[in-house]
């Protein structure tokens, strides 16, 4: 059904990736699939620390994030390949841009139940759903999981 799946993830909630990957492979319905894991580093969105920015430290963080993503999904079906992507910027913008660039069939992401703050500023999931070039599956995470 779906063969090109984008999974944006938060490396501070790695346990969610296993659930998302399980659902993603179910959506592939046994057919070959490409699962693209996307980590968006939002550290320098506002460029507040730009004058003191250490490029070597940032490169080390990028390599560590890619390594962590590669280690997350080891038990996927043989016909599923995993690609890891690291981007800098605002999460929702990078998710949408990556989905478009990859020609993703579906975006799968976690979201927690909205709180009062999301009524004022919105959430990444909300923005992705509104503007995505493809289907989006939002998997609710339990408040105790986050």
From TrEMBL:
<comment type="similarity">
    <text>Belongs to the universal stress protein A family.</text>
</comment>
<dbReference type="InterPro" id="IPR006016">
    <property type="entry name" value="UspA"/>
</dbReference>
<dbReference type="InterPro" id="IPR006015">
    <property type="entry name" value="Universal_stress_UspA"/>
</dbReference>
<dbReference type="InterPro" id="IPR014729">
    <property type="entry name" value="Rossmann-like_a/b/a_fold"/>
</dbReference>
<feature type="domain" description="UspA">
    <location>
        <begin position="1"/>
        <end position="140"/>
    </location>
</feature>
<dbReference type="Pfam" id="PF00582">
    <property type="entry name" value="Usp"/>
</dbReference>
<protein>
    <submittedName>
        <fullName>Universal stress protein F</fullName>
    </submittedName>
</protein>
